[in-house]
Amino acid sequence: MSHQKNDQCYILEQMQNLLSIPSPSGMTREAAAYLMGELSRLGFQPWQMRKGTVVCELGGTGHGVLLSAHVDTLGAIVRAVKPNGRLRYSQLGGYNDNAIENENVCIHTRDGKRFTGTVQSVHASRHVWGDISGEKRDDQSLEVVLDEETSSKAETEALGIGAGDIISFDPRFVVTEKGYIKSRFLDDKASAAVLLGVARAVREGTIHPGRRVVLAFTVYEEEGHGASALQQLDVEDLLAVDMGCVGDDLNCTETQVSICAKDSAGPYDWSLTNDLIARSRQLGLDYAVDIYPRYSSDTATALKAGLDVRFALCGQGVFASHGYERTHVKGVMNTFRLVCDVASRVSAED
């Protein structure tokens, strides 16, 4: 099997493994433990920050570059148990409530129990309520219906379910024959899998760090403070590997690596972004340059917290972000090749 095909198989395997681990913001210990185990298995010595970010040095010397992705995802938390025994929720992360109607979920209680259920309209049946298609979807018109024989608040609470329990959504991971990858939470577990692929390539000697290379897998990006402590890592460049947006007047498709020139926090570093574009051309990658006006990443958090670095962002194009998302194997591998190039080249500052 060729190196490229081997890399692809490994990245898809890691993507599926990560997506199978529920990790809404605030409940990421299991996902972090998986990363610690896999990086250790590859022969590295990862460690965790107090907040849970997994950090791993891949080797190299001089002008450190930090490659970051996040493994926390969207989800929900139990706001209240309703009089009918069903659950009112509060969002974790930001999404359109229309995107979660009819989704299967798991409720994770504080004492370790798990219960299944479904997000449903409070007027779920047309045969009962008539046409309610125009009803706004929010945390009052939607509720979590438990797969339990319960019809009262007391009965649900007797199961051990209450306010503050975490609700995770079924990712529904699929890879089609044409190479499309469909799943919730490709933002950003697809990129976390890409970074594991980079670590594996370093360990197997197919790439060699051209400078000090550090990986960081953050765990509160969807809540806006995932990268707030990264200044202690003492690097000079930060490349956030996150999703690229697809739609409206954007250039990117799911088969490309997207390079972000500006998001809601402002423009990315001119010279580092230019370098990504130039290298994509030289490598023959299928890429696009875009701005994301309603997007923010770990770079904004790190910079506001005082990290003094050049900063850029790239990632595979993702359609229907913060919903049931879709990317393509080609986009993932274009991203992987670009990130490997960043890790293997000597900094322009050297």
- CA radius of gyration: 21 Å
Helix content: 25-40%
H/E series, N to C? Answer: HHEEEEEEEHEHEEEHEEEEEHEHEEH
Principal-axes geometry comes out as: globular
**Integer average pLDDT:** 96
End-to-end distance, in Å? 36 Å
Supply the number of helical segments: 8
Largest sheet, in brief, is: 10 strands, mixed
Low-confidence residue ranges = none
Strand content: 25-35%
Structural class by helix and strand composition: alpha+beta
Count the beta strands: 19
Could you explain how this protein is built, in words?
The protein is α+β, with helices and mostly antiparallel strands and 350 residues long. It is 27% helix and 27% strand. It contains eight helices and 19 strands. The strands form three sheets. Strands 1, 2, 3, 12, 13, 14, 15, 16, 17 and 18 form a ten-stranded mixed β-sheet that branches. Strands 5-4-9-6-7-8 form a six-stranded antiparallel β-sheet. Strand 4 (75-81) and strand 5 form a beta hairpin. It is globular, with a radius of gyration of 21 Å.
